[in-house]
């Protein structure tokens, strides 16, 4: 491959890389595009991995067009190939098989690696797992029929996804939180309690303020863990998921500015000409607010950043203007959106909050104010106001700028209308409720992430 040149070289075949390639091809019909992935699979829908493990989604349904996208758009796809060095002064990337490729424009979107604490006793056993890739999910799925008990530890979204996958797959699950609530940098105690109750209703044993002291192994297989509170918990599988670490070691010596991730501006440009970054590996230059939670937003962030990077690699001037901290997910059937400073520390903030009773479903909403300015929000169970609040935080609006009727809608005791139909967003996994009847071919926008969805067969839940 030495000596070959690609007009657009994309490192990483996750959603950021895929959306960038799609965007570039839409704007440049003739430029050569090469996508390089360390995985051995075509692009797949990572948010569907829990459903795959639980046996609710077949493997074939994880893939987008079964690889036809690349062929139909004249894009070269190199699988099982890992970048090991970037040489900006030569416009060249070196790979682990000894080959290299010259580029005109380069996008770094390698994603992240799963962070896992190492516990005594667990080294070298196949019974300690995480779930980040399709290979991870397939490995766990291959074990699930032989499992009676599993234990998962970690306060990340990835940990709750693994809990849900195992539980829905028929395994008895114990979920350990090292703190007193879920996602402590995002959720307060009341919001966490809603999600904890939902996990418990599904049969998950939630233990708080606990940690693993030792993983117990017999004949090479996990049979339980000992905790710091001197409890023994039987399990045949231990899942550890402490978030993501940007996979950027291969750029450390390339004069590309990095911190925990690769620093980019709003155009997704790095400090080196012709090199862009997007997704979990990219890190926006901070506003300097130390109270803003630092999280990897994964799928949704990568989706939007890939589009912006693709446009600008072709020569446009698009901007990524989303909040520094925007997280959305769905745990079982409970939607969650966290915006900005959603769980502040200290007494300078004013909190507006309200709870609404709805049959079979808890709802919790909160707005965080700093001297009257909206700086954060938290929505659990009902996220209808997410897009308006996101705009208000991004534009630094005062609470007095917000329509009184909107505030009453959030915190009043009005009647909750039951929607006629519901769609689960394929990007951020939230329920999108509609008062009108939806059907195949309908176009609906997600109130949390703003993605427009063209409904297809089996997407609508009535």
Short description:
20% of the residues lie in helices and 31% in strands. It is an alpha/beta fold and 462 residues long. It folds into 4 domains: 5-113 and 245-313, FAD/NAD(P)-binding domain (3-Layer(bba) Sandwich); 116-242, FAD/NAD(P)-binding domain, CATH 3.50.50; 333-411, Enolase-like, domain 1 (2-Layer Sandwich); 421-461, no CATH class.
Task: Please summarize the sheet with the most strands.
Answer: 7 strands, mixed
> What is the count of β-strands?
29
According to CATH, the fold-level topology of the largest domain is FAD/NAD(P)-binding domain
| CATH level 4 superfamily of the largest domain | FAD/NAD(P)-binding domain
* Beta fraction: 25-35%
| Helical run tally | 9
For this structure, what is the CATH class of the largest domain? Alpha Beta
Name given to the CATH architecture of the largest domain = 3-Layer(bba) Sandwich
Low-pLDDT ranges: 292-297, 414-420, 457-462
Structural class: alpha/beta
- Give the N-terminus to C-terminus distance in angstroms: 52 Å
> What would the principal axes of the Cα set say about the shape?
globular
Average residue pLDDT: 86
Helix content: 10-25%
Q: Give the number of domains.
A: 4
- Rounded radius of gyration (Å): 23 Å
Topology of helices and strands:
Elements: E1 5-11, H1 15-27, E2 33-36, H2 49-53, H3 68-72, E3 75-78, E4 83-87, E5 92-95, E6 100-108, E7 112-114, E8 128-129, H4 134-144, E9 149-153, H5 157-168, E10 172-176, H6 189-201, E11 205-207, E12 212-218, E13 221-227, E14 232-234, E15 237-240, E16 244-246, E17 262-264, E18 275-277, E19 282-284, H7 299-313, E20 326-331, E21 334-340, E22 349-358, E23 361-370, E24 373-380, H8 386-394, H9 404-411, E25 421-424, E26 431-434, E27 443-445, E28 452-454, E29 460-461
Parallel strand pairs: 1-2, 1-6, 2-3, 6-18, 8-15, 9-10, 9-15, 10-11, 17-19
Antiparallel strand pairs: 4-5, 5-6, 7-16, 12-13, 13-14, 20-21, 21-24, 22-23, 23-24, 25-26, 25-29, 27-28
């Amino acid at each position: 491959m030495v000596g070959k040149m690609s007009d657009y070289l994309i490192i990483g075949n996750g959603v950021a890389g895929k959306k960038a390639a799609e965007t570039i091809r839409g704007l440049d019909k003739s430029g050569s595009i090469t996508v390089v992935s360390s995985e051995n699979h075509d692009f797949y829908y990572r948010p569907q991995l829990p459903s795959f493990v639980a046996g609710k989604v077949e493997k074939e349904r994880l893939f987008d067009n079964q690889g036809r996208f690349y062929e139909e758009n004249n894009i070269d796809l190199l699988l099982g190939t890992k970048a090991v060095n970037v040489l900006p002064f030569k416009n060249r990337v070196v790979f682990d098989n000894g080959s290299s490729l010259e580029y005109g424009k380069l996008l770094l979107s390698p994603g992240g690696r799963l962070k896992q604490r190492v516990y005594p006793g667990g080294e070298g056993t196949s019974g300690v797992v995480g779930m980040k890739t399709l290979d991870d999910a397939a490995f766990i799925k291959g074990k699930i029929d032989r499992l009676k008990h599993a234990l998962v530890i970690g306060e990340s979204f990835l940990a709750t996804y693994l809990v849900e996958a195992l539980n829905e797959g028929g395994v008895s699950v114990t979920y350990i939180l090292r703190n007193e609530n879920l996602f402590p940098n995002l959720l307060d105690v009341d919001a966490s309690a809603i999600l904890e109750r939902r996990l418990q209703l599904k049969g998950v044993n939630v233990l708080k303020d606990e940690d693993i002291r030792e993983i117990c192994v017999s004949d090479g297989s996990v049979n339980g863990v000992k905790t710091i509170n001197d409890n023994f918990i039987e399990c045949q599988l231990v899942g550890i998921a402490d978030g993501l670490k940007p996979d950027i070691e291969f750029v450390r010596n390339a004069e590309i500015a990095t911190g925990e991730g690769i620093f980019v501006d709003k155009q997704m440009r790095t400090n080196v000409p012709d090199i862009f970054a997007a997704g979990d590996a990219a890190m926006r230059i901070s506003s300097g607010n130390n109270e803003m939670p630092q999280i990897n937003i994964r799928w949704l962030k990568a989706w939007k950043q890939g589009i912006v990077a693709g446009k600008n690699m072709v020569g446009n001037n698009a901007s990524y203007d989303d909040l520094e901290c925007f997280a959305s997910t769905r745990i079982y059937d409970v939607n969650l959106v966290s915006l900005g400073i959603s769980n502040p520390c200290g007494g300078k903030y004013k909190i507006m909050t309200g709870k609404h009773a709805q049959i079979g479903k808890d709802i919790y909403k909160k707005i965080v104010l700093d001297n009257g300015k909206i700086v954060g929000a938290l929505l659990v169970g009902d996220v209808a106001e997410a897009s308006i609040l996101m705009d208000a935080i991004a534009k630094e609006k005062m609470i007095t700028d917000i329509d009184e009727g909107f505030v009453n809608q959030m915190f009043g005791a009005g009647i909750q209308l039951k929607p006629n139909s519901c769609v689960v967003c394929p990007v951020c996994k939230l329920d999108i409720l509609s008062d009108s009847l939806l059907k195949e071919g309908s176009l609906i926008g997600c109130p949390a992430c703003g993605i427009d969805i063209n409904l297809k067969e089996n997407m609508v839940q009535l």
